[in-house]
Amino acid sequence: MFSQFSIAEKISEAxxxxxxxxxxxxxxxxxxxxxxxxxxxxxxxALENLCSNLHEFSCPVPQRAYELLxxxxxxxxxxxxxxxxxxxxxxx
Length: 92
Prior knowledge:
- By secondary structure, the chain is mostly helical.
- Helix content is 71%, strand content 4%.
- Helix 1 runs antiparallel to helix 2 and helix 1 (4-24) packs parallel to helix 3 (43-56).
- The longest helix is centred in the N-terminal third of the chain and has 21 residues, at 4-24.
- The termini are far apart.
- The relative contact order is 0.20.
- The model has no long low-confidence stretch (mean pLDDT 95).
């Protein structure tokens, strides 16, 4: 089982990996929103929101970011539908 700190690190790294894409799509505030949720120990909501934003804005998702979201989500027992929506958007 992952520690809460490890989960936060995974979501933070995934967010960093997709930050440029969200900025280019015109949604830089979504990045800061995710980091704020992580700092507030709301990692589940951070993961759900990040996945929803990436899906809604049809952003490409690096394979590594997807893996990190999946690992964190599984560790927290978040519904897999959040990251599975991103499968068609995975790149590299």
